[in-house]
C-alpha cells in the first residue's frame, strides 16, 4: 500500500522514448496517477458503510473485521503471485487489469451484498490492489523520466495517490452514507463507472516496458531474508507490522470505537477519522523525505508514541478530540516509520535481491493489518472498549518503540 515498497518490488525498466501513437508521456503520467488514486480510494470506501451493513443484517463486530481482513489477504496473495509480472507483461496491461478487477468488485458489492458477498468483494478488491501498487509506482517513475520531469515528482505523486487515496475513500463513503438515499448502492455505481472510463484512458498511455519476444516462464514473487542481516530485517519487519496494525485498526475498526466508546453514530465522522489518519501519514512522508534515515526513525517513533498516548487518553475520557488528533499524530508517525523500515530492509538486501527482501517486509506488514485487527475484534467481545483501546495503544507504542530503537542500532 505504500509507494516506496511497491517501487522496490519491480525493477525499473528503461522507458521507451516513443509514444507508439498514444498520448504524450506527461499526460499519461497523470492518467496513471488518477487511476492509482481512484483504486486506492475504492479499497477504503466501505469503511464507513460497514456500520450500515451491520445495522441491516445484525452481524457481530468480528464479522466486520473478517470482511476487512480478507482484503489484506487478497493484497498479499496478489503481490506474491502478480506483483512483478508487469516487468515482462507490460505496465499498462496490468493496470488496466487491476481497474477491471476492481470494477468487478464494485459490481459484486451491488449484486451480492450479504456477508458472503461482502467477503468475496473485498477479497477480489484486494487482488486488484496487490497487482496495482508496484506496477503503478514503477510506471509513474518511468513516465516521469520519459517526460523529462524533476526526479522527485514521481515519488511525491505516488505517495499522495497511495496513502491519499486510502484516506479519501472513507471520506467519500461517509459523504454518500450521510447524504445519499442509497448509500450502499451509489458509491459503488460511481466507482464502477469511473474505473471503467479510466481503463479506456490507461489503454492509451504509453508503455514503458519493452516486452520480450519470448515470454519468460512464470514464477511467483520470490521472498528473501538477508542471511547476514536478519536482525535488521526483523526489526524493520516489526516496525512495518506495528505501523500496519495502527493503520489497519483505523481502517477497519474506527467506526466501532466511535459508536461503542465515544457514542458518535455519524457515518460522515466514521469516514473523516480514517481520512485524517491516512492523510497525516501521506503528508508526514512527504514532509520528512529529505531527513536522514536515523532522523526519520526518531521522528516517527516520537510521533507514533505521542499519538498513541492521545488515543489511550481518549478512552477513559470519551474524548473525540483526543481520538481524532491522536489518530492523526499516530498516523504521521507510523507513516514515517514504515518508510524507514522499507529503507532499512533495502539497505541490507543482497545485491540483485532487493525486491525479494521488500516482498518479505510486505508479507510481515500485511500480517500486521490482519492479525492484530482480528484479535482486537475478539477482545471487544470480551472486554469493555475502554480497556481494549488503552491496551491496544500501549502494545502498539511498545512495538514501534522497541522495533524503531533496534533499527537505529543497525
Descriptive terms for the model:
15 helices, Growth Hormone, Chain: A, globular, 2 domains, 410 residues, mainly alpha, single chain
What is the name of the CATH architecture of the largest domain? Up-down Bundle
Based on CA inertia axes, which overall geometry fits?
Answer: globular
CATH class of the largest domain: Mainly Alpha
- What class would the helix/strand composition place it in? mainly alpha
Strand content is under 5%
* CATH fold-level label of the largest domain: Growth Hormone, Chain: A
Number of helices: 15
Going by CATH, the homologous superfamily of the largest domain would be MFS general substrate transporter like domains
C-alpha-based Rg, rounded: 20 Å
The average pLDDT value, as a whole number, equals 91
- Which series of helices and strands comes N to C? HHHHHHHHHHHHHHH
Low-pLDDT stretches are: 2-15
* Total domain count: 2
Strand tally is 0
End-to-end distance: 25 Å
Note the main sheet.
none
Percent of residues in helices: over 70%
Describe the structure in your own words.
- The chain contains 15 helices and no strands.
- The chain has 410 residues and is mainly α.
- The longest helix has 32 residues, at 115-146.
- It starts with a helix and ends with a helix.
- The chain has 2 domains: 1-12 and 21-217, Up-down Bundle (Growth Hormone, Chain: A); 222-410, Growth Hormone, Chain: A (Up-down Bundle).
- Helix content is 76%, strand content 0%.
Amino acid at each position: 500500500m505504500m509507494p516506496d515498497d511497491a517501487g522496490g518490488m519491480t525493477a525499473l525498466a528503461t522507458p521507451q522514448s516513443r509514444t507508439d501513437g498514444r498520448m504524450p508521456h506527461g499526460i499519461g503520467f497523470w492518467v496513471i496517477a488518477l487511476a492509482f488514486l481512484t483504486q486506492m480510494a475504492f479499497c477504503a470506501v466501505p469503511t464507513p458503510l460497514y456500520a450500515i451493513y451491520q445495522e441491516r443484517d445484525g452481524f457481530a463486530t468480528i464479522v466486520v473485521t473478517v470482511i476487512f481482513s480478507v482484503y489484506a489477504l487478497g493484497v498479499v496473495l496478489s503481490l506474491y503471485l502478480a506483483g512483478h509480472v508487469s516487468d515482462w507483461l507490460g505496465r499498462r496491461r496490468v493496470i488496466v487489469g487491476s481497474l477491471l478487477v476492481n470494477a468487478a468488485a464494485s459490481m459484486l458489492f451491488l449484486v451480492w451484498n450479504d456477508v458472503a458477498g461482502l467477503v468475496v468483494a473485498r477479497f477480489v478488491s484486494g487482488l486488484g490492489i496487490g497487482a496495482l501498487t508496484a506496477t503503478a509506482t514503477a510506471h509513474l517513475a518511468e513516465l516521469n523520466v520519459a517526460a523529462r520531469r524533476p526526479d522527485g515528482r514521481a515519488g511525491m505523486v505516488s505517495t499522495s495517490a497511495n496513502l491519499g487515496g486510502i484516506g479519501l475513500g472513507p471520506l467519500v463513503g461517509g459523504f454518500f452514507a450521510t447524504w445519499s438515499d442509497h448509500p450502499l448502492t451509489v458509491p459503488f455505481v460511481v466507482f464502477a463507472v469511473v474505473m471503467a472510463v479510466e481503463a479506456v484512458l490507461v489503454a492509451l498511455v504509453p508503455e514503458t516496458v519493452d516486452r520480450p519476444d519470448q515470454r519468460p516462464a512464470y514464477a511467483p514473487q520470490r521472498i528473501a531474508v538477508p542471511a547476514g542481516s536478519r536482525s535488521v530485517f526483523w526489526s524493520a519487519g516489526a516496525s512495518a507490522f506495528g505501523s500496519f496494525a495502527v493503520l489497519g485498526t483505523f481502517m477497519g475498526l474506527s467506526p466501532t470505537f466511535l459508536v461503542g466508546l465515544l457514542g458518535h453514530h455519524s457515518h460522515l465522522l466514521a469516514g473523516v477519522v480514517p481520512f485524517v489518519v491516512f492523510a497525516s501519514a501521506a503528508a508526514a512522508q512527504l514532509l520528512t523525505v529529505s531527513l536522514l534515515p536515523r532522523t526519520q526513525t526518531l521522528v516517527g517513533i516520537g510521533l507514533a508514541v505521542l499519538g498513541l498516548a492521545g488515543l489511550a487518553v481518549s478512552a477513559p475520557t470519551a474524548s473525540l478530540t483526543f481520538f481524532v488528533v491522536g489518530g492523526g499524530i499516530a498516523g504521521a508517525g507510523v507513516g514515517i516509520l514504515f518508510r524507514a523500515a522499507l529503507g532499512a530492509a533495502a539497505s541490507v538486501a543482497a545485491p540483485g535481491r532487493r525486491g525479494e527482501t521488500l516482498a518479505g517486509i510486505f508479507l510481515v506488514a500485511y500480517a500486521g493489518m490482519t492479525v492484530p485487527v482480528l484479535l482486537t475484534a475478539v477482545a471487544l467481545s470480551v472486554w469493555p472498549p475502554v480497556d481494549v483501546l488503552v491496551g491496544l495503544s500501549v502494545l502498539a507504542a511498545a512495538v514501534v518503540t522497541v522495533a524503531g530503537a533496534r533499527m537505529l542500532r543497525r
